[in-house]
Specification:
The structure is a homodimer of 158-residue chains. By secondary structure, chain A is of the alpha+beta class. The first copy, chain A, has five helices and five strands.
Chain lengths: 158, 158
């Protein structure tokens, strides 16, 4: 078992997945980690969309130029923010980091693919997932079993 | 030792500190955790200011209405972003979450006190810490030994 600090330092973006599904309990734990993030005045201005449907994953894959790994992801989580709340972007970014760390901790790979602030990405995600107008998708996080288990994180400290 | 998921789920904001100092190695590990965050195109648009000087902590305490715990903090980390980079806010928010988690993992308490987007907070922090104009302090994170070790995190899942 990794400690928290080891997990933070060893996490890295994973972009190649086997196509295998993600355990549903694990997905719930991963989203719960997102919900554990701090938020300004504890407003928790977020919503999380969990996608396991292959058809939706493939549609998002086609629509998003930097999320082409979605066709081999076991699932994806979309972190959305309530645009009426002033601090939704930072709060949702903190929640996203928790999601990435929890996925890593549970043995999955994941990667943050940005949606906001790109209108050309926000609109297709909104349409595919029926997201109301005042809610904005910050990112799509493909999650899956990594093809290569031996990838080392980039050294960012030199 | 906590696992990564346990650490994420049990972390909570700590606002009352004993006034004791923070071990320097621990501070370096905490900042290293910040640097391990993902960033758009791996640009890492961040800088971290580590403050242990009591005079500076007290000056920031006086200047910042929501960071009054700084006078009892052992240290503070200021997460700054390069405003020339489009995604600095989300990248620095992810780094901040890693810092909060690493502080928690090492047995310290910490709390995210927002600076950006409040001009009335950005300016005094910039002046006190001599931060160049194109670099923006996202937050000040007081870190210390928690007075009350038995505080439980808020249940955010109901």
């Amino acid at each position: 078992m990794q400690t928290l600090v080891e997990g933070i330092l060893s996490r890295h973006s994973v972009r190649k997945f086997t196509g295998d599904p993600i355990n549903e309990n694990d997905l719930n734990t991963i989203v719960k980690a997102g919900m554990a993030a701090p938020s300004a005045m504890n407003i928790q201005p977020w919503s999380f969309i969990i996608i396991t449907d292959k058809g939706i994953l493939n549609n998002l894959c086609k629509a998003l130029p930097y999320a082409k790994m979605l066709d081999k992801a076991g699932a994806a989580i979309i972190v959305c923010g309530d645009s009426k709340e002033a601090n939704w972007v930072v709060d949702c970014a903190a929640a996203t980091e928790n999601i990435l760390l929890a996925a890593h901790a549970l043995g999955y790979g994941a990667v943050w693919t940005a949606v906001y602030k790109y209108e050309s990405r926000i609109e297709p995600v909104r349409k595919e997932c029926k997201i109301p107008n005042d809610i904005i998708p910050l990112n799509v996080i493909p999650i899956g079993i990594a093809v290569d288990k031996n990838v080392k994180p980039i050294n960012k400290y030199n």
